[in-house]
Design a protein that fits this description.
- By secondary structure, the protein is of the alpha/beta class.
- It is 33% helix and 21% strand.
- A hairpin with a 2-residue loop joins strand 3 and strand 4 (60-62).
- The radius of gyration is 31 Å and the shape is elongated.
- The termini are far apart.
- Residues 35-46 have low confidence and may be disordered.
Length: 498
């Protein structure tokens, strides 16, 4: 926990602090020259005559430069236990350019519980976010809530905050979104992470690791003379770039991590589709290879941990499982040999286009399709109503066991008219992993029960043995409508007659 180092002016203070020394002042107020700070009609109200102001530290007279030196190293604040004396000294402290380092004991108690506080710093951090073009910043420590920025409801725009408790409802007007915990925004990606609370070096590094996948940039306040300042001076090479903006008692520092973009878009196929001249980063995965007579593509879905044997019933999902278990790309796509994302209707989406879009969005999916009848009835037409209803009920049962919070979304998709088709998407790794972890927590077990309770494995009609895959391709929609993601929809190029 942050412990303020203070120069105390007045009596004792009732909170945990480190008292570096005790100050006394002698100056204009004692000569009867005090002017209340709000009355600034005279130009010399904030001008001091040479020798007109005296400062005593623990009974020894020091200069204003001595005091500034102490505040630049050993102490964070000058703390007044008497609000009247603080106001009485305002003129001299302003003239000496020390007012930013002076607070009352009450102000210290309210505003400096977790980190060094200065009104000027809050403004500098806010301005830096916009000057550096980092509008989607995640305020992990609730910096702006603690600095009274709830008084400026139109300024937050795209800034999001992490606040376990909202003390004042007005705070909700400042932030574009409030998350109760960091875990609530694990699937999102931000322009920057804002860390302002005081942390030891070990705690700061733990925070960097814990928040690593949320942004490439970390904006933080580094107190002058702190262990963190010394660590950054020694280990700056750990970051691609470090930028510093002078602030009260330290610097506002932007740490830019080394970019690590490893894009791969897997094209699922079960036959030699003559896919040539694919864009860089595209790889062909042979789905259902365990039952195939020949091999084609770059990888197969039956190496290592796999569910290739279920391909006749789950189709492309067996390839999805293999990619999840055997790759570690930072950006990952999943498309079909007949269906590819496009932005212009002619060319496949490139790696650069995809990673650029994923700076602003969390996931890319195909454009939503709307039908004239609910999805539940549409699936019944593709196979048969009894089989389709059995598949729907079994999958629902297993979702209820492992992911009960998704039941409402599952029912809504099945009873609804809109859906994302084809089970194709492109996302950052953490999105991909989260979806796969959710999907495979129930779909394999559900498939095994359906196979054990029906004869679809013995039927040669694809409308029968594909009944599970007919439903499963819409499970991405179930997951999407139950998570707070920024979704980008793109059209697809459909390759016919293959």
């Amino acid at each position: 926990m942050y412990t303020a180092r203070i120069l105390l002016c007045g009596g004792d203070i009732n909170r945990r602090v480190q008292v570096v020394g005790r100050l006394k002042f002698r100056g204009a107020a004692e000569r009867g020259e005090f002017v209340f700070p709000g009355n600034t009609s005279a130009a010399d109200n904030f001008t001091l005559r040479d020798g007109s102001f005296r400062i005593f530290l623990d009974g020894t007279e020091i200069t204003a430069d001595d005091l500034r030196g102490i505040l630049d190293g050993a102490a964070d604040y000058i703390v007044f236990t008497s609000r009247d004396e603080f106001l009485m000294r305002f003129r001299e402290l302003y003239a000496l350019n020390l007012i930013d380092r002076c607070v009352t004991a009450d102000t210290l108690t309210i505003y400096a519980a977790e980190s060094f506080f200065a009104v000027a710093n809050a403004g500098k951090i806010f301005n830096a976010i916009h000057a550096l073009k980092l509008p989607r910043t995640l305020d992990v420590d609730g910096c702006f809530a603690n600095c009274d920025y709830q008084m400026f409801p139109d300024l937050g725009a795209k800034i999001e905050g992490v606040l376990a408790d909202v003390t004042f409802p007005a705070v909700e007007n400042f932030y574009a979104r409030i998350h109760r915990t960091v875990d609530d925004c694990r699937l999102k990606f931000f322009d920057a992470i804002l860390l302002t609370n005081e942390r030891t070096v070990a705690e700061f590094l733990d925070a960097l690791i814990d928040l690593d996948a949320l942004s490439q940039n970390v904006l933080t306040f580094v107190r002058r003379g702190s262990d963190l300042e010394r660590w950054l001076a020694r280990h700056g090479c750990a970051f691609e770039k470090i930028s510093a903006l002078p602030a009260v008692n330290g610097n506002i520092v932007l740490l830019t991590k080394f970019a690590r973009a490893d894009f791969a878009c897997y094209v699922v196929t079960h036959k030699d589709a003559k896919l040539t001249a694919l864009p860089d980063g595209y790889r062909i995965i042979h789905a259902g290879h365990i039952n195939a007579a020949e091999t084609f593509g770059d990888v197969t879905d039956d190496a290592g941990d796999n569910i290739s044997r279920l391909n006749p019933f789950l189709n492309e999902i067996t390839a999805l499982y293999w990619i999840w278990r055997h790759t570690n790309h930072t950006h990952i796509g999943f498309v079909h040999y007949r269906r590819f994302f496009t932005t212009d209707g002619e060319n496949f989406l490139s790696a650069d286009q995809a990673t650029t879009l994923l700076r602003d969005y969390d996931i890319i999916v195909n454009e939503c399709r709307f039908g004239y009848i609910p999805l539940r009835d549409w699936k019944a037409m593709l196979s048969s109503r009894p089989l389709a209803e059995h598949v729907r009920a079994v999958v629902r049962k297993f979702i209820a066991r492992s992911q009960p919070e998704y039941l409402a979304a599952y029912d809504r998709i099945n009873e609804g008219f809109g859906t994302f088709c084809y089970e194709i998407f492109i996302a950052r790794r953490k999105i991909f992993d989260a979806y796969c972890a959710w999907l495979f927590s129930f779909i394999i077990d559900a498939t095994e029960e359906i196979l054990a309770t029906t004869n679809i494995a013995d039927d040669d009609d694809p409308r029968t043995y594909r009944a599970i895959s007919f439903l499963a391709e819409h499970l991405l929609g179930v997951w999407l409508i139950n998570n707070h993601l920024r979704i980008k929809t793109l059209p697809i190029i459909f390759r016919d007659n293959i």
